């Protein structure tokens, strides 16, 4: 048993290693114990005080090739912060993140222009991702096909609905077969046909041994597309495991909360966190080891 486990670890090729990462933001706050209208007005002149928001408390994770990791949790639990850290757009307050290749963040990396037509934006987006002209020409039809925009591809992007724009971004961002793809909610805007198309595109990416991170409030989307799920709450990593176990526990948690049963929700939160087996990232040492 132990040998099987060690063998699996050896076979797994890590793509993202999150080593004791935490994130705090310094934010201006107008809160005061003794706030009155007059001192609120005087604070308008003096400026607000600063507080620290603990967006992510220290956590470690190792994600490997072929994994599609769903990130779930209530509003403000730290999901977007975690994806921004993995993408390298934000630096963690403490800890380090290692990635085997540049992570592509859907919708952010494709710097598209609203005045240009969809087809022109395809070229712009591909150039921005570092493709040469020949590769763009090879991929062009496939990108238009994945976007499902039909003749709307020739219209300016500013005339698109938000769902149409995110379909185009999805098609462009996934055309590079990124080794690490981060998707934050973008898939929820599409219609059923697009969801089907994006689902098959994500499984293609996984088959090419890539890694996908998907933030979503839709447990249906997570169940359809992910092989592993992590649950964040209040900046804490509460669960990390198979899709069924984590999503069903999270559903119980949210239904306790919506029924006003905060005690049971807290108990479930506590138990989940207690049973989490924390990842430990060991220092890599070189040279001869002593006995
Ligand atoms: N740029 C920022 N400056 C200050 N605080 C921030 C910033 N970004 C996020 N936060 C805070 O960090 C915490 C986590 O936010 P984050 O956006 O990561 O949550 P989330 O789980 O993605 O939420 P949602 O489901 O609502 O998108 C929140 O308390 C939020 O207010």
From TrEMBL:
Residues 39-259 form the ABC transporter domain. InterPro entries: AAA+_ATPase, ABC_transporter-like_ATP-bd, ABC_transporter-like_CS, ABC_transpr_TagH-like, Bact_Polysacc_Export_ATP-bd, P-loop_NTPase. Transmembrane segments: none annotated. Keywords: ATP-binding, Nucleotide-binding, Transport. CDD domains: ABC_KpsT_Wzt. It comes from the Bacteria. The keyword Nucleotide-binding applies. GO terms for molecular function: ATP binding. PROSITE patterns: ABC_TRANSPORTER_1 (PS00211), ABC_TRANSPORTER_2 (PS50893). Belongs to the ABC transporter superfamily. This is ABC transporter ATP-binding protein. The lineage of its organism: Bacteria, Bacillati, Actinomycetota, Actinomycetes, Micrococcales.
């Amino acid at each position: 048993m132990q040998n099987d486990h060690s063998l699996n670890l050896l076979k797994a090729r890590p793509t993202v290693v999150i080593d004791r990462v935490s994130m705090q933001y310094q934010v201006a706050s107008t809160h005061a114990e003794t706030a009155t209208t007059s001192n609120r007005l005087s604070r308008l002149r003096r400026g607000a005080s600063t507080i620290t928001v603990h967006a992510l408390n220290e956590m470690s994770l190792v994600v490997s090739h072929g994994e599609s990791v769903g990130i779930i949790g209530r509003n403000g639990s730290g999901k977007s912060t975690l994806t921004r850290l993995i993408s390298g757009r934000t630096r963690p307050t403490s800890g380090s993140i290692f990635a085997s290749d540049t992570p592509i963040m859907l919708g952010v990396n494709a710097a598209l222009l609203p005045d240009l037509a969809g087809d022109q934006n395809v070229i712009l987006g591909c150039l921005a991702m570092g493709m040469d002209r020949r590769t763009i020409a090879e991929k062009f039809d496939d990108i238009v096909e994945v976007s499902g925009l039909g003749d709307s591809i020739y219209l300016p992007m500013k005339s698109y609905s938000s769902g149409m724009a995110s379909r185009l971004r999805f098609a462009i961002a996934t055309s590079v077969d990124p080794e690490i793809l981060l998707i934050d909610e973008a898939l929820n805007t599409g219609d059923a046909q697009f969801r089907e198309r994006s689902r098959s595109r994500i499984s293609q990416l996984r088959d090419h041994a890539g890694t996908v991170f998907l933030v979503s409030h839709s447990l249906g989307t997570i169940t359809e597309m992910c092989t592993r799920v992590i649950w964040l709450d209040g900046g804490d990593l509460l669960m990390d495991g198979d899709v069924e176990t984590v999503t069903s526990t999270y559903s119980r948690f949210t239904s306790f909360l919506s029924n006003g049963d905060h005690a049971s929700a807290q108990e479930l939160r506590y138990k989940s966190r207690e049973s989490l087996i924390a990842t430990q990232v060991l220092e890599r040492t070189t040279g001869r080891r002593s006995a």
